[in-house]
Design a protein that fits this description.
Length: 147
């Protein structure tokens, strides 16, 4: 049995840590920009792992096809999360601190709600259905340079 829940929660903690550092950096704009770049790259990888590998495999194991399965809402939430990340990015380029904070708070709320569903449904069910070797291949496809 794969340990998807543990890996994904660890990845969430890493992303949250980057996000917290970015929001907390008020004195060094260059460092804030670098933290945001790392955050953005990592959250995009995380979403890619779920949308392109984990969720399709879970849907297949459960016998769902198309956009009707239990991961459809999560995939839609990912699109909104990416839009919010883009808003923060744009606000950062124009140094609009109020917009960064506003979009950042919305992003934080969206991530919290999204993760609750993943932790209650997607990851535990994935742990049950997805075998270790299948999970390792998925991780390797997306995190090849970090594993």
């Amino acid at each position: 049995m794969a340990d998807i829940t543990m890996f994904m929660n660890s990845d969430h903690a890493y992303i949250d840590g980057l996000w917290g550092e970015f929001l907390g950096e008020r004195s060094d704009a260059e460092r804030a920009a670098q933290l945001f770049k790392i955050f953005k790259e990592h959250i995009e990888r995380h979403i890619k792992l779920e949308d392109e590998y984990l969720f399709p495999a879970l849907e297949k194991h459960l016998g769902f096809q198309g956009e009707l399965g239990p991961t459809a809402l999560a995939v839609e939430q990912h699109k909104n999360i990416i839009k919010l990340v883009g808003l923060v990015d744009e606000a950062g380029k124009t140094k609009a601190l109020e917009k960064i904070i506003f979009a950042g708070n919305n992003l934080r709320s969206a991530l919290a709600a999204h993760r609750e569903t993943e932790n209650e449904i997607h990851y535990p069910v994935s742990d049950f259905f997805i075998k270790d070797d299948e999970w390792e291949k998925m991780k390797q496809e997306v995190y090849w340079d970090l594993l």
